[in-house]
Amino acid sequence: MPAKIIDGKEVSSKFIEDIKKKVKGLKEKPGLAVVLVGNNPASEIYVGFKEKKSQEVGFYCERYNLDEGVKEDELLKLVDELNQNKKIHGMIVQLPLPKRINENLIIDAILPHKDADGFTPVNLGNLVNDNNMLVPATARACLELIKSTGVEIKGRNAVVVGRSNIVGKPTALLLMQENATVTICHSKTKNLKEHTKNADILVVACGKAKLIKKNMVKPGAIVIDVGINRVAGKIAGDVDFENVKEVAGYITPVPGGVGPMTIAMLLDNTVKAMELGKGVLK
C-alpha cells in the first residue's frame, strides 16, 4: 500500500488561518523585515513567498534588496537599524550570504527577540535547554508535519540525516523533547542504510538529490524530506520520492511539503517575536 502524502499546503493552511485571526484582533500589525543580498534565484523565490504570505496574513512588511557587492559593515548597519526600528518585530536575513560575508557575524547581530528565523546562538541555546523561545522555522515545520500524521512520537526511533544548525540539529532537539530516541547521521556516517532502515521517523536534510532509496526505508516509516535540489531542470528532494512512497507509511513531497509549512512557522515566529519584544523596546 503506497504511503499517505503529507500535504504541506493543507497542514499549513490551518496555521495560516489562525495567524490571520490573531492579527485581526491586534491593535498593532506584526512587522517583518526581509533582507536579501544579491540575486540568487532560489533565494529570490523564497523571499518572494515570505513577503507575499506575510502581507496575506496582515503583517506590515519591509523588504531590502541589497547589491551582491554590499560591504559587511553596511549589512551590519542595516541589521542594527532594524533592531532599533519599533515597527519591525521580526527580521530575516536570507541565507546563504556571499562567501566574503561572515554569516555568523550577521546572525549574531540580530536581537534574539527579533530573530524570526530562530538562528541566533541565544535561540539555539534556549532550544538545547528545552526553553523554546524562537525555534528555527524549518525544524518546527518538520515536527508539525510529523504530528499531523497522528502517530505518537514518544518512544519511536527517529533518524535525522544532516547536522546543520538550521535544520538537522534543531530538528533532533525537538524530537528529543517529544521523547523520541534520536540518531543524527551526516556525510561521515558509515553504513547510512543501517541507521535509516531502523527509523520509525526519518527526516532528511542533507542537500543530496535522491540520496534515500527505497531499500533504506523501514516499511511504514514517516519520511520528511527537507531537501531542495535541481536535477535536469526540475526540483527534487533528498528522498527518491516515487520509489520510497511504495514502502513508507507517510511521506512529504518536494515541492509542496516542508516549504509551505516553514513559511507558516516563520509567520508564527514573527507574532511570537512581537509578543517577546513588548517591554524590551519602549
Please tell me about this protein's structure:
The chain has 2 domains: 19-114 and 261-277, Leucine Dehydrogenase, chain A, domain 1 (Rossmann fold, 3-Layer(aba) Sandwich), CATH 3.40.50; 136-251, Rossmann fold (3-Layer(aba) Sandwich), CATH 3.40.50. It is built from 10 helices and 11 strands. The protein has helices spanning 8-24, 41-56, 72-84, 103-109, 121-128, 137-147, 168-177, 192-196, 241-244, 258-277, and strands spanning 4-5, 31-37, 60-66, 90-93, 157-161, 181-185, 201-204, 222-225, 229-231, 234-236, 250-251. The strands form 3 sheets. The chain has a 6-stranded parallel sheet with strand order 1-11-8-7-5-6. It has a 3-stranded parallel sheet with strand order 3-2-4, sandwiched between helices. It has a two-stranded antiparallel sheet with strand order 9-10. The longest helix is centred in the last third of the chain and has 20 residues, at 258-277. It is globular and about 50 Å long. The model has no long low-confidence stretch (mean pLDDT 95).
CATH fold call of the largest domain: Rossmann fold
Terminal CA distance reads 58 Å
Count the E strands.
11
Task: Please state the structural category.
Answer: alpha/beta
Instruction: Indicate the CATH class of the largest domain.
Output: Alpha Beta
Question: What shape does the CA trace take?
Answer: globular
Low-confidence parts lasting 5 or more residues at pLDDT below 50? Answer: none
Main sheet properties: 6 strands, parallel
What Rg is obtained from the alpha carbons, in whole angstroms?
19 Å
- CATH second-level architecture of the largest domain: 3-Layer(aba) Sandwich
Content of β-strand: 15-25%
| Helix-strand topology string | EHEHEHEHHHEHEHEEEEHEH
Give the total of domains. Answer: 2
| Mean pLDDT score | 95
CATH-assigned homologous superfamily of the largest domain: NAD(P)-binding Rossmann-like Domain
Number of discrete helical segments: 10
